[in-house]
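Need residues for this backbone.
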């Protein structure tokens, strides 16, 4: 792997941290939010649906980008995303616990609305930030994904420092007294706004410092790298050419027959991305409370936080053990699906899942969430590293597929959770 400049790598890590730090902050704080919100155990399901409604952001950006309008600037859209996230984090720190009566029900309307703003910005980063990273050589994709992993780690560390607070589930063996959290939810979201500020400053420096601008690839250099990478990698050898690859041309262009092997690679990678995101961004977060809370709030807390912590570790692993074979990624995706299936089945057994009330049960559910998060993190960073060598368009399509998969998973699990009795709280 070609060398990277440490200063640029650090800035890209901090920039990547701003991609999902707000929504990951909400997930990290769920053990406390669930105990206070009128929606109770169904709060994760409503949040997941709210996140998917926010897919209007990347859809709108993609349309504007397609027509090459001035509103689709990668740089200024990224600035807008970071600014909105910063102010939304400040607002949610003040209004997260305010409830509004709608009809005969109390709802966490301010929390849901501000979470929607979080989701709107974070979902759009899947398209905008990935496309922006096409300006840099391939070796900078791993720092970016490490940064994206830190968007889960930093809220997780804050939540671990904060402590669980709250009571226990009726079926849990964890029946001892509980102190309140070490600091409030308000402080937590206030600290989250500082993380967004750090990401915004890093992005400004990426666009305005010579050391960063010198690392960006010009069109000719990028195309030479694409050809070199495609010649050296199996099964990517069919990607040779004298221009940046456009996904639509690979599937529907006049010379699509020349891209048969590359088309097969794209299909595999995008299907893997859709499956992983449908489960990881839609299904598993929605059922996490049902799978974990029967074992007690500490188990829920650890499963939530440690699964976020493992993300950047697996991304960093790709520095040393990279995977460029779609076949291997397909196998890893199958393993991830099996782990997810076990988690979902455990959630269906709520309020009395297997080994409930035992240390073994708590350990099992925490390990399942850690393995699941680590597996999908490693898959996503390697898929993006493969696609990055074909330029901005392939990464933009990857971002679109990410959001489509996430949306499909969220809608399906929302209907199952709210319209059936498949998942029962304790």
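Answer:
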């Amino acid at each position: 792997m070609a060398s990277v400049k440490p200063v640029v790598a650090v800035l890209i890590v901090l920039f990547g941290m701003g991609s999902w730090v707000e929504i990951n902050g909400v997930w990290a704080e769920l053990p406390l939010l669930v105990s206070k919100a009128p929606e109770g155990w169904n709060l994760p399901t409503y949040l997941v649906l709210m996140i998917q409604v926010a897919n209007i952001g990347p859809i709108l950006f993609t349309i504007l980008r397609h027509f090459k309008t001035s509103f689709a600037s990668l740089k200024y859209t990224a600035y807008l995303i970071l600014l909105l996230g910063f102010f939304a984090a400040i607002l949610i720190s003040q209004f997260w616990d305010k409830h509004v009566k709608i009809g005969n029900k109390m709802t966490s309307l301010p929390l849901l609305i501000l979470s929607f703003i979080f989701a709107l910005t974070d979902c759009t980063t899947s398209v905008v930030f990935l496309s922006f990273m096409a300006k840099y050589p391939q070796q900078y994709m791993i720092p970016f994904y490490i940064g994206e992993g830190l968007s889960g780690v930093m809220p997780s560390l804050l939540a671990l420092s904060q402590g669980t607070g709250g009571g226990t589930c009726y079926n849990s063996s964890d029946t001892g007294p509980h102190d309140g959290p070490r600091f409030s939810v308000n402080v937590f979201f206030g600290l989250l706004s500082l993380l967004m500020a750090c990401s915004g400053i890093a992005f400004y420096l990426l666009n305005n410092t010579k050391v960063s601008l010198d690392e960006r690839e010009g069109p000719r250099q990028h195309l030479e790298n694409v050809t070199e990478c495609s010649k050296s990698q199996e099964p990517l050898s069919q990607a040779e050419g004298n221009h940046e690859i456009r996904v639509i041309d690979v599937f529907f262009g006049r010379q699509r027959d020349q891209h048969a092997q590359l088309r097969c690679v794209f299909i595999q990678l995008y299907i893997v991305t859709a499956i992983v995101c449908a489960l990881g961004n839609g299904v598993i977060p929605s059922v996490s409370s049902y799978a974990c809370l029967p074992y007690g709030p500490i188990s829920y807390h650890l499963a939530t936080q440690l699964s976020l912590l493992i993300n950047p570790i697996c991304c960093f692993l790709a520095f040393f053990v990279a995977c460029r074979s779609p076949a291997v990624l397909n196998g890893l995706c199958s393993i991830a699906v099996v782990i997810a299936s076990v988690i979902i089945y455990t959630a269906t057994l709520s309020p009395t899942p297997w080994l409930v009330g035992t240390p073994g049960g708590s350990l099992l559910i925490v390990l399942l969430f850690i393995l699941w998060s680590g597996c999908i993190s490693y898959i996503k960073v390697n898929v993006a590293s493969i696609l990055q060598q074909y330029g901005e368009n392939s990464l933009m399509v990857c971002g679109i597929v990410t959001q489509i998969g996430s949306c499909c998973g969220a809608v399906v699990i929302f209907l199952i959770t709210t319209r059936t009795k498949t998942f029962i709280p304790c």
